Amino acid sequence: MLIRDPRASLQSRKHREWCPGKVDCDNPKIVCQDLVNDYRAAKKLRRQYPKRFKWVNLPVIKGFTTQRLQNIGTIFRVIRYEEFSVDPYNQSANVFNFFGLNFEPEVKKFLDTHTTKNDNAPWTTFRDSKAAPFHWTKELTFQETLSIQEDCRDALSLWGYREALNHTDLINLQPLMNLNWDHEMPSSEVVVEEITSTELNVKSMK
Predict the structure, then answer these.
(1) From CA 85, how far away is CA 130, in angstroms rounded?
(2) Per-residue pLDDT tens over the stretch 134-156
(3) Burial category of 161 from C-beta neighbours within 10 Å (exposed 0-12, middle 13-18, buried 19 and up)
(4) Closest to 154 (Cα-Cα) out of 188, 120, 119, 205
(5) Hey, which of 11, 18, 152, 167 would disulfide with 32, CB 3.0 to 4.6 Å?
(6) Residue 80: its H or E element
(7) What global pTM score does this model have?
(8) Distance between CA 139 and CA 158 in Å, rounded?
(9) What angle do CA 7, 152, 160 make, to 5 degrees?
């Protein structure tokens, strides 16, 4: 599961012609309710299948030995985009290990050439990975940020993102906090369907 600070997501979507005016894309309440639902579903999976996240017996996939699959250790992982971006080498190695793959020299070469400079094209893969996740703090006004935070307070808290308290705080914001799986869930009622063991097997193989 990949999570991104909703303030950054909403700032980025402002400049994409396919998003503005579509409530499921540019409405902070809906975007952040989805994040709350994701957190709720992740907690349910951890509680419902505690043993399924450790030493899982999965069918052998082409190119994978049984031992390599067992070494994966888990079949579910949460990655925050910002954590990945500021440490792309270690985080990439962790993802490769998660899927039982080797971190090949070609991957390092790709990271060497694609994570240290920006390209102005909107869909480029060339980005200064340490700066890109926090670019929104320079692009959103404090009033825009405050408006998003008011609709996203639960999502920000659950996923470990610090709120900006004023304009100066926004400019110097270090938004990442520790991710805590012991949060009390918001009081709003959101239905998360039970996930059967069969469904979990199917989802893990996709």
Answers:
(1) 6
(2) 999 999 999 999 999 999 999 99
(3) buried
(4) 188
(5) 152
(6) strand 79-80
(7) 0.75
(8) 24
(9) 75
